[in-house]
Amino acid sequence: MFKLSGVILILATFTDVIWCQSCPSGFLHHDNSCYSLIRVLASWAEASVYCQAIGSHLAYVEDASEHSFVEGYLKREDTTIMSDGIWISGLTYLVKDDWQWGFKNTRIANTFWAPGEPNNDRSSQFCVMYKKGSYMWDDNECQDTEYFLCELELESAPGIVGK
Ligand SMILES: [Ca+2]
Ligand SMILES: [Ca+2]
Protein backbone atom coordinates (compact mmCIF):
# COMPACT_ATOMS: atom_id res chain seq x y z
CA MET A 1 0.00 0.00 0.00
CA PHE A 2 2.80 2.37 0.95
CA LYS A 3 4.62 1.48 -2.25
CA LEU A 4 1.54 2.12 -4.35
CA SER A 5 0.98 5.58 -2.87
CA GLY A 6 4.66 6.26 -3.45
CA VAL A 7 4.21 5.46 -7.13
CA ILE A 8 1.11 7.62 -7.31
CA LEU A 9 2.96 10.44 -5.61
CA ILE A 10 5.83 10.18 -8.07
CA LEU A 11 3.40 10.05 -10.98
CA ALA A 12 1.56 13.08 -9.65
CA THR A 13 4.82 14.97 -9.26
CA PHE A 14 5.90 13.96 -12.75
CA THR A 15 2.55 15.09 -14.14
CA ASP A 16 2.97 18.44 -12.41
CA VAL A 17 6.29 18.84 -14.14
CA ILE A 18 4.71 18.03 -17.52
CA TRP A 19 1.94 20.53 -16.83
CA CYS A 20 4.36 23.11 -15.60
CA GLN A 21 4.45 25.83 -18.22
CA SER A 22 7.21 24.76 -20.51
CA CYS A 23 7.32 24.98 -24.28
CA PRO A 24 8.83 22.58 -26.83
CA SER A 25 12.21 23.66 -28.16
CA GLY A 26 11.94 26.30 -30.83
CA PHE A 27 8.83 27.76 -29.17
CA LEU A 28 8.69 30.91 -27.07
CA HIS A 29 6.51 31.09 -23.98
CA HIS A 30 3.93 33.79 -23.27
CA ASP A 31 1.05 33.40 -20.81
CA ASN A 32 -0.55 30.00 -21.50
CA SER A 33 0.81 29.58 -25.01
CA CYS A 34 3.97 28.79 -26.90
CA TYR A 35 4.79 30.48 -30.20
CA SER A 36 7.11 29.68 -33.03
CA LEU A 37 7.91 31.80 -36.05
CA ILE A 38 8.30 29.36 -38.93
CA ARG A 39 10.75 30.72 -41.46
CA VAL A 40 9.36 28.86 -44.44
CA LEU A 41 7.44 30.47 -47.30
CA ALA A 42 3.96 28.95 -47.39
CA SER A 43 0.44 29.83 -48.46
CA TRP A 44 -2.06 30.36 -45.64
CA ALA A 45 -3.45 26.84 -46.18
CA GLU A 46 -0.01 25.22 -46.25
CA ALA A 47 0.94 27.14 -43.11
CA SER A 48 -2.22 25.90 -41.37
CA VAL A 49 -1.43 22.30 -42.24
CA TYR A 50 2.18 22.72 -41.11
CA CYS A 51 1.19 24.12 -37.71
CA GLN A 52 -1.37 21.33 -37.22
CA ALA A 53 1.18 18.69 -38.18
CA ILE A 54 3.43 19.79 -35.33
CA GLY A 55 0.54 19.81 -32.83
CA SER A 56 -0.20 23.52 -32.91
CA HIS A 57 -2.27 25.92 -35.02
CA LEU A 58 -1.77 29.22 -36.81
CA ALA A 59 -1.77 31.80 -34.01
CA TYR A 60 -5.01 33.19 -32.61
CA VAL A 61 -4.02 36.67 -31.44
CA GLU A 62 -7.02 37.46 -29.31
CA ASP A 63 -6.29 40.45 -27.12
CA ALA A 64 -4.03 43.47 -26.72
CA SER A 65 -1.61 41.67 -24.43
CA GLU A 66 -1.14 38.81 -26.89
CA HIS A 67 -0.83 41.23 -29.80
CA SER A 68 1.80 43.26 -28.02
CA PHE A 69 3.78 40.10 -27.23
CA VAL A 70 3.61 38.93 -30.87
CA GLU A 71 4.49 42.38 -32.17
CA GLY A 72 7.56 42.48 -29.90
CA TYR A 73 8.60 38.94 -30.86
CA LEU A 74 8.36 39.68 -34.59
CA LYS A 75 10.15 43.01 -34.24
CA ARG A 76 13.04 41.27 -32.50
CA GLU A 77 13.15 38.75 -35.36
CA ASP A 78 12.77 41.42 -38.05
CA THR A 79 16.18 40.93 -39.67
CA THR A 80 15.46 37.20 -40.14
CA ILE A 81 12.06 37.73 -41.77
CA MET A 82 12.38 37.41 -45.55
CA SER A 83 8.69 37.72 -46.41
CA ASP A 84 6.20 40.59 -46.70
CA GLY A 85 4.33 39.29 -43.70
CA ILE A 86 3.67 36.51 -41.23
CA TRP A 87 0.43 34.52 -41.46
CA ILE A 88 -1.79 34.09 -38.44
CA SER A 89 -5.06 32.18 -38.30
CA GLY A 90 -7.51 34.96 -39.26
CA LEU A 91 -9.53 34.77 -42.44
CA THR A 92 -12.82 35.78 -43.95
CA TYR A 93 -14.76 33.54 -46.30
CA LEU A 94 -18.21 33.33 -47.79
CA VAL A 95 -19.33 36.45 -45.93
CA LYS A 96 -17.41 39.63 -46.71
CA ASP A 97 -15.59 41.20 -43.75
CA ASP A 98 -16.68 38.45 -41.41
CA TRP A 99 -13.26 37.84 -39.87
CA GLN A 100 -12.90 34.51 -38.12
CA TRP A 101 -10.18 32.45 -36.48
CA GLY A 102 -9.76 29.61 -38.95
CA PHE A 103 -10.41 26.13 -37.51
CA LYS A 104 -11.59 27.66 -34.25
CA ASN A 105 -14.80 28.95 -35.81
CA THR A 106 -15.03 32.03 -33.65
CA ARG A 107 -15.43 35.57 -34.88
CA ILE A 108 -12.44 37.82 -34.28
CA ALA A 109 -13.40 40.17 -31.46
CA ASN A 110 -10.31 42.39 -31.24
CA THR A 111 -8.48 43.44 -34.38
CA PHE A 112 -5.06 45.00 -34.80
CA TRP A 113 -5.15 46.24 -38.39
CA ALA A 114 -2.38 48.42 -39.79
CA PRO A 115 -3.58 51.86 -40.92
CA GLY A 116 -5.57 51.50 -44.16
CA GLU A 117 -6.20 47.78 -43.67
CA PRO A 118 -8.11 45.64 -44.34
CA ASN A 119 -8.26 47.07 -47.85
CA ASN A 120 -9.22 43.85 -49.69
CA ASP A 121 -6.85 44.87 -52.47
CA ARG A 122 -7.99 43.57 -55.90
CA SER A 123 -11.02 42.13 -54.05
CA SER A 124 -9.02 39.00 -53.31
CA GLN A 125 -7.55 39.37 -49.82
CA PHE A 126 -9.13 36.97 -47.36
CA CYS A 127 -6.32 35.93 -45.00
CA VAL A 128 -4.64 37.82 -42.15
CA MET A 129 -0.93 38.37 -41.72
CA TYR A 130 1.30 40.61 -39.65
CA LYS A 131 2.80 43.13 -42.05
CA LYS A 132 6.61 43.17 -41.91
CA GLY A 133 7.83 46.50 -40.56
CA SER A 134 4.75 47.82 -38.79
CA TYR A 135 3.88 44.39 -37.38
CA MET A 136 0.19 45.17 -37.47
CA TRP A 137 -2.43 43.17 -39.39
CA ASP A 138 -2.93 43.23 -43.13
CA ASP A 139 -5.42 41.22 -45.19
CA ASN A 140 -3.57 39.47 -47.99
CA GLU A 141 -4.15 36.94 -50.73
CA CYS A 142 -4.31 33.50 -49.12
CA GLN A 143 -2.14 31.87 -51.79
CA ASP A 144 0.72 34.35 -51.29
CA THR A 145 3.68 32.69 -49.66
CA GLU A 146 4.75 34.11 -46.31
CA TYR A 147 6.47 33.05 -43.12
CA PHE A 148 3.98 32.17 -40.38
CA LEU A 149 3.39 31.97 -36.66
CA CYS A 150 2.29 28.73 -34.96
CA GLU A 151 0.77 28.76 -31.48
CA LEU A 152 0.50 25.88 -29.06
CA GLU A 153 -1.70 26.21 -25.99
CA LEU A 154 -0.20 24.69 -22.87
CA GLU A 155 -2.24 22.10 -21.05
CA SER A 156 -3.53 23.52 -17.84
CA ALA A 157 -4.32 21.25 -14.94
CA PRO A 158 -7.18 22.56 -12.78
CA GLY A 159 -5.81 24.12 -9.63
CA ILE A 160 -2.23 24.10 -10.87
CA VAL A 161 -2.09 26.55 -13.71
CA GLY A 162 -5.63 27.88 -13.72
CA LYS A 163 -7.21 29.60 -16.67
CA1 LIG B 1 -3.69 32.86 -28.64
CA1 LIG C 1 -4.41 44.32 -47.53
TrEMBL record:
The keyword Transit peptide does not apply. Pfam families: Lectin_C. Residues 1-20 form the signal peptide. Keywords: Disulfide bond, Signal. Residues 30-151 form the C-type lectin domain. SMART domains: CLECT. InterPro entries: C-type_lectin-like, C-type_lectin-like/link_sf, C-type_lectin/snaclec_domain, C-type_lectin_CS, CTDL_fold. It comes from the Eukaryota. The keyword rRNA processing does not apply. PANTHER family: MANNOSE, PHOSPHOLIPASE, LECTIN RECEPTOR RELATED (PTHR22803). This is Perlucin. It comes from Haliotis diversicolor.
